[in-house]
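Retro notes, item 3 of 5
We never archived the inputs for the fe (ii) ion complex last cycle. Fixing that now. Sequence and ligand:
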Amino acid sequence: MSKSIQEMSIDGDEPPSQYMVLKDSFGSVDSSPAESLFPIIDIGVLSSPPASCSKTDIDNELEKLRSALSFVGCFQVIGHGISNLLLDKMRDVAKKFFALPIEEKEKYARAVNESEGYGSDRIVSEKQVLDWLYRLTLKVFPEDKRRLNLWPRDPNDFRGTLDEFASKIKTVNNILFKAMARSLDLEENSFLNQFGDQAMMQARFNFYPPCSRPDLVFGVKPHTDRSGLTVLLQDGDVEGLQILVDSKWVRVPAIPYALVVNLGDQMQIMTNGIFKSPMHRVITNLEKMRISVAFFNEPDPEREIGAVDSLVDEHRPRLYRNVKNYGAINYECYQKGMVALDTVRI
Ligand SMILES: O=C(O)CCC(=O)C(=O)O
Ligand SMILES: [Fe+2]
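Structure as it came back at the time:
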């Protein structure tokens, strides 16, 4: 049997060809230095403005949000109300889980045709270039859809921490969806209503072991997220995420107690293309491992979503048809190497 990513990482092996991208097919791994292209937005000012906060302060924050989402599709959030203690604890339980012996992690293994559970890349074609990471994917909302048998029992505070963290992320999402609507002069619930009360949230724990060829192997290849909105807890000090801005890859700086937010395809549809779902990727690192936890927020797959009416007019015709269960469309396209948003374009 061939060696696992972790074994190759520990032995410092040259990764096999399935992991190597053809030279320049995804652009070089070089990136621009982390510029201040991704603003830091204080959502405390938007959700419960302190008395000292003027209307101008609030409008400034909303304008930063609107402009970031219209141009780069990504920003960092502070004032999110999640304590440093809880942010560190979430990282800590993730780290402890990935440090468990393989047999222990395999208890939560992803079944062949499923997305939930622990494992490395799902192989769907021979031509596929494999990502250098392990993932643990768990549905956290709707709560009655949780598959608790896949939630690690070790470390023993994993489940409680994820439960607490996910409900905080839900609050952050609600603040952001309302702020995004306000920033476009829409009724506050214009997006939230489309997500519905059965909106889905998946947590994905990403573990990137060190790799001997960071010049040719990606942690995650370039992609856009199928979600509506993705909220990411980055590693406290190891960078890796890069976003494509004007055909240049730009590093997203690691800010220990901020959350990274990037827009997903479904919000690009709902905003009629005004907000951008950015292409992004994760690079590997020669010596350091990296851990991140992403929360993908999606509308209820049973509901049809589409551009908010007032964002469609003669100057801005409807760009995408209304869709249901975009996750399935996105997955099918991924298997065929197609860009999912292109297939729903009018
Ligand atoms: O690890 C990261 O920084 C981002 C991971 C990512 O893009 C994803 O899981 O979709
Ligand atoms: Fe992503």
